[in-house]
Amino acid sequence: MAKQQDDRTTLDLFAEEKRPGRPKTNPLSRELQLKINKRNQLKRDKANGLRRVELKVDVALLDRLNELAEANNVSRADLIQMLLRQHVEAQTMQQQQD
């Protein structure tokens, strides 16, 4: 049987042929790589004194936060942190005055 270069239905004939593309440099699966990277990111954040907070907001508020963050050239997370800090400081000042 003759081997056609463009025939990919008989895979056993092409088992030894190298395929073009990016070489695999990490022996771990992509899913496992992502888990490890996330774990390392959480360790870095913890070392920097950061803690994770999950927040659910409606779409209109999210759109407004995105607009404000873009207008101020900051990330949405930084904007939310700044707004929370301002609000907490204002509440603290108000409680001290009472």
What's the gist of this structure?
This protein has 98 residues and is mostly helical.
What is this structure's SSE topology?
Layout: H1 30-47, H2 59-71, H3 76-97
Region (Disordered): 1-28
Biased composition (Basic and acidic residues): 1-20
Domain Ribbon-helix-helix protein CopG: 51-89
Number of discrete domains: 1
State the low-pLDDT regions, or none: none
Number of strands: 0
**Individual helix count:** 3
Shape: elongated
* Helical percentage: 40-55%
Distance between the termini: 93 Å
- Rg, Cα atoms, Å: 26 Å
Residue share in β-strands: under 5%
Protein name: LexA regulated protein
Organism: Pseudaeromonas sharmana
InterPro entries: CopG
Notable features of this structure?
single chain, LexA regulated protein, CopG, Arc Repressor Mutant
